[in-house]
Amino acid sequence: MPKTPLPQKTLLDEQTERLGEAVGDLIRAYQFRDRNEICCHGVSVSQCYALEALYRNGGLTMGQLSDYLYLDVSTVTRVIDQLKGLGYVERVPDTDDRRVVRAEITRGGRAIVRKIRGSLADDYRNVIESIPVAGRNAVIAAVEQLHTAFLSRSSCCADRRPEES
Q: What would the DSSP string read from start to end of 110-139?
């Protein structure tokens, strides 16, 4: 019986595979670098992301933080409790609905975010300096486009958070 030839990979198939590998490699490299830089400041990566969200957006409810961080509300609540224990966050009643509690960053929280940002900025400077000057804006634009594409993709699982998989 003659063997059926395997279908040829299309250019799109090859690009899909390369993108998956490249994004996976980038995420792993970023997460390990990120973890090493952030942990030396006494907060976990999740805590750092929550602090950054509050620093950038002001007070947020647990639901808003959950959406922003792609984490379950119970996980966000635990992270905020830990940050409150460190003195970096406080819980305040919402001005419109007193049943709702907002997390707000404290002065100490803003100070640690500035320290972490400074450390990370040094690292980003080293990364961007390793890219030829003529290609830097193209790399930044490509990362921005990739982020936008991920946010706008339609998927059967697009509304599921990582913890629910």
A: HHHHHHHHHHHHHHHHHHHHTS-GGGHHHH
By residue range, what is the domain housing residue 72? 32-130
Q: What is the pLDDT of residues 84-143, one digit of tens each?
A: 999 999 999 888 888 889 999 999 999 999 998 998 888 889 989 999 999 999 999 999
Query: Does residue 126 fall inside a structural domain?
Result: yes
**Confidence (pTM):** 0.70
**Secondary structure (3-state) at 151:** helix
CB 89 within 8 A of CB 112: no
Q: How many domains does the chain have?
A: 1
Helix (H) or strand (E) segment spanning residue 101: strand 101-105
Virtual CA dihedral for 75, 77, 79, 80, nearest 10 degrees? 160
Name the 3-class secondary structure at 60. strand
